[in-house]
Design a protein that fits this description.
Length: about 180
């Protein structure tokens, strides 16, 4: 019963577009997520523990382009994500209209409440309204739990791309109208 009441409460979250004043909040969430992954034995996102200038610039660019969103519950930021209309670094130039999800983070205190699923479903609704063809995302290919999580949400593997930090599995999901 306790879990059900928490789920009902979590469903009352709000999503707001972040402003540059929220930069430190987003950076804190990224560091919390990186530490959690490290504690789980994953190497993914370890650069966020002491982020290099290039990663900080990438995050700042997201704020400047109005791509960062914060999830608020009870006046607390409990999750975040970045939503882009294109992603040349990971996906190259595509001839379709898609949303690219990056840095989807749920604070560890709120894990297990299906908040990530709810956020992805909301983004999917936005994609339908925005006449998008696909939702796309990527994750560290060595994080098999996360890869399986996305597969279970209907995302299909769409190749791999290597960066200076990792080899990432690309996933996409066609938007049904």
């Amino acid at each position: 019963m306790h879990d059900d009441s928490l789920k009902l409460k979590i469903e009352a979250f709000t999503i707001k577009q972040a402003s540059l004043a929220d930069f430190d909040t987003a950076l804190h969430l990224l560091k919390v997520a990186a530490q959690r992954l490290k504690d789980m034995g994953q190497s993914q996102w370890q650069y966020w523990l002491s982020p290099p200038a290039e990663r900080l610039a990438w995050l700042r660019e997201g704020f400047e382009n109005n791509q960062v969103f914060l999830v608020d519950y009870n006046h607390r930021v409990i999750a975040m994500f970045r939503l882009m209309d294109q992603d040349l670094k990971y996906w190259g130039n595509k001839d379709d209209s898609s949303y690219y999800i990056h840095s989807l983070i749920v604070h560890p205190k709120y894990k297990g409440q299906q908040l990530g699923i709810q956020i992805i479903h909301m983004i999917q609704d936005w994609a339908v309204k925005g006449d998008k063809d696909f939702l796309r995302l990527d994750c560290d290919a060595s994080n098999t739990d996360l890869c399986n999580y996305y597969k279970n949400l209907g995302f299909l593997p769409a190749g791999k791309v290597s960066t200076e930090w990792s080899t990432n599995q690309l996933f996409q999901k066609a938007i049904e109208r």
